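Query structure, 647 tokens:
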């Protein structure tokens, strides 16, 4: 093409049939009949729904996972509408359409569509000499299935030759009550309204005729130009034997991820955590689970780069073992500005911590931000389709679909994968006393809790040993003697000899002014438990010496002692606990994360942050040497089963 007119809107109607489709702005008098005068020609394109594409538990070089594939539910695979985008070889915008004419689909998830295109628009692209160079014949084709309104609006306002359209971002705000401004990305609140948003998985190049007049052969629906098959009988220049080989479908992937969950305990989400003389004296039961730090934004088209940053990023390439999926806020995560500026709410739904007056905390306000579910309700939910990946073993368990989530990845240095910016699940557990020591003070405390943390006993845990009062701590520390770690943790470095005390003789407390024992004496004995300042001083000394304190509370009117476990979603498991790998903690589109808590090794984090010697902070690494939970995650590419297409 020697001279180029200004690019015009490229009016292409992808022929996915749906009820009520309007063709008012298609050229020609009788769209869809072939009686179009000379202004319309037809194309046929195949769009391949997800079949074996997706990523990783550990990512193979071809982008596939080693865990198998998850068969999608019918409503996750429905195609109700399609938006087709055409761009030149540099991905500059040519035009788009969301029109629908005709559709066929097969059992393997391939959608074959016939679409109409305005010959006037083609003429504009071909220029005044009605010819294209060999390079100009190659165009890029992008497909969005079930496009949401926000995406449609983007293209309505995209100018010809725009080269920023492929960097557009989808945003979603979701509230803890389930309300959302963009739930359409996963088919609406009940997942059955408009189908799941899907986008092109890879860059697809197709070739069109070199001479405009060759399109005259394709002016009937029955004889479309093949965008996904062979074309013969072409006479234009640049043809090899009069053929154009466009074989190959346009692959798409879902724009969101899915979480599944099962009871990994084998006994109603209950785990043995504290033993004495080989017998379990305390169990915990997981009762609630909450999603935290779900991204508010993601790219409509997946992007990858060598370091997870936007510089050098590319669309249309798969995630592999040697690259990163790029997030919309990659630069902010890399610089640390989200944590430094406490701007979590700008980036995440259901923020882990609550920020007030510049201070970040996990407190009651934070827990109200989390999207919380009763585990009993989750386990009554929808079965997954795990027959194929579980077939032959039957050992992987029966998972339930929990919910859907948006993409969240962290670039470059693995150390930047921290709790404040990673998507995670918080489990709330209740401590349960077994009948092994039914007469013990511990049994009485756990079974008789009123939920009043100010009056119920404080439980103290050191190592994996639990005490019901500081008096019990003192007695055991004195028994173990000065050389023991417990003695030093409780008494510090006293010059005197602490004495437990009896009903007849007073106790002797540590004279180390910085010790927990000394500060407990000030708070409990001298101040009669009325001084908050001395209480805080005691707690700081105790937690500073690795004591964890648990105070009772009530959950929906049920009193007891509760604790929390934090799990950060693993996308690419490097198999090395304590050392993080790249893209290890992430959520990536078109993956199913199947979670099961197999074992719990110790009591979790206390409800009150000041009671925690190892509190969760925004910059706490997602992976630490000390592991509370043994969580198994299977990361599966999310594929199609049966496609219910609405006509």
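Result returned for the query:
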């Amino acid at each position: 093409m020697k001279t180029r007119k200004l690019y015009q809107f490229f009016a292409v109607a992808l022929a996915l049939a749906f009820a009520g489709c309007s063709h008012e702005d298609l050229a020609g008098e009788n769209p869809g009949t072939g009686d179009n005068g000379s202004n319309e020609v037809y194309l046929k394109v195949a769009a391949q729904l997800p079949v074996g594409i997706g990523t990783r538990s550990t990512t193979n070089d071809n982008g596939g996972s080693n865990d198998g594939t998850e068969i999608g539910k019918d409503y996750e695979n429905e195609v109700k509408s399609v938006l087709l985008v055409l761009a030149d070889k540099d991905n500059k915008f040519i035009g788009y359409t969301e029109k629908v004419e005709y559709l066929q689909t097969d059992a393997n998830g391939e959608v074959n569509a016939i679409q109409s295109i305005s010959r006037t628009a083609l003429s504009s692209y071909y220029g005044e000499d009605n010819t294209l160079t060999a390079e100009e014949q190659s165009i890029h084709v992008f497909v969005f299935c079930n496009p949401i309104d926000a995406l449609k609006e983007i293209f309505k306002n995209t100018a010809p030759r725009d080269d920023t359209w492929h960097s557009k971002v989808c945003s979603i705000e979701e509230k803890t009550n389930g309300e959302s401004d963009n739930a359409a990305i996963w088919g609406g609140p009940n997942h059955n309204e408009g189908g799941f948003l899907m986008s092109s998985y890879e860059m697809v190049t197709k070739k069109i005729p070199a001479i405009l007049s060759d399109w005259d052969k394709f002016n009937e629906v029955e004889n479309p130009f093949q965008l996904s098959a062979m074309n013969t009988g072409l006479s234009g220049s640049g043809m090899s034997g009069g053929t154009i080989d466009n074989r190959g479908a346009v692959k798409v992937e879902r724009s969101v991820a899915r979480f599944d969950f099962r009871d990994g305990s084998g006994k109603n989400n209950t785990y043995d955590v504290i033993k004495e003389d080989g017998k379990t004296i305390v169990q915990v039961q997981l009762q609630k689970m909450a999603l935290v730090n779900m991204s508010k934004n993601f790219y409509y088209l997946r992007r990858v780069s060598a370091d997870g940053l936007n510089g050098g990023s590319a669309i249309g390439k798969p995630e592999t073992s040697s690259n990163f999926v790029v997030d919309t806020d990659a630069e902010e995560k890399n610089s640390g500005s989200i944590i430094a500026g406490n701007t979590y709410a700008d980036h995440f739904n259901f923020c882990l911590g609550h920020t007030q007056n510049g201070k970040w905390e996990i407190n009651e306000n934070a827990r109200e931000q989390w999207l919380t579910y009763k585990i009993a309700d989750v386990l009554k939910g929808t079965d997954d389709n795990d027959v194929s990946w579980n077939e032959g073993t039957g050992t992987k368990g029966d998972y339930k679909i929990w919910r859907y989530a948006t993409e969240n990845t962290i670039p470059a240095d693995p150390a930047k994968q921290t709790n404040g910016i990673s998507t995670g699940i918080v489990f709330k557990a209740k401590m349960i006393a077994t009948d092994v020591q039914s007469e013990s003070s511990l049994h009485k405390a756990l079974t008789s809790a009123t939920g009043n943390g100010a009056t119920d006993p404080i439980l103290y845990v050191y190592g994996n040993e639990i005490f019901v009062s500081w008096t019990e701590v003192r007695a055991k520390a004195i028994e173990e003697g000065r050389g023991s770690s417990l003695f030093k943790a409780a008494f510090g470095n006293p010059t005197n000899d602490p004495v437990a005390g009896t009903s007849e003789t007073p106790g002797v407390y540590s004279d180390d002014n910085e010790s927990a024992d000394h500060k407990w004496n000030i708070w409990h004995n001298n101040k009669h438990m009325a001084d908050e300042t001395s209480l805080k001083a005691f707690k700081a000394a105790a937690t500073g010496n690795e004591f964890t304190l648990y105070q009772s509370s009530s959950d929906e009117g049920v009193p007891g002692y509760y604790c929390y476990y934090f799990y950060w979603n693993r996308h690419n498991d490097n198999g090395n606990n304590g050392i993080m790998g790249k893209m290890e903690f992430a959520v990536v589109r078109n993956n199913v994360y199947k979670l099961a808590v197999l074992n719990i090794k110790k009591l979790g984090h206390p409800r009150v942050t000041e009671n925690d010697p190892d509190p969760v902070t925004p910059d706490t690494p997602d992976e630490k040497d000390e592991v509370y939970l043994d969580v198994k995650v299977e990361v599966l590419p999310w594929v199609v089963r049966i496609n219910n297409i609405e006509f």
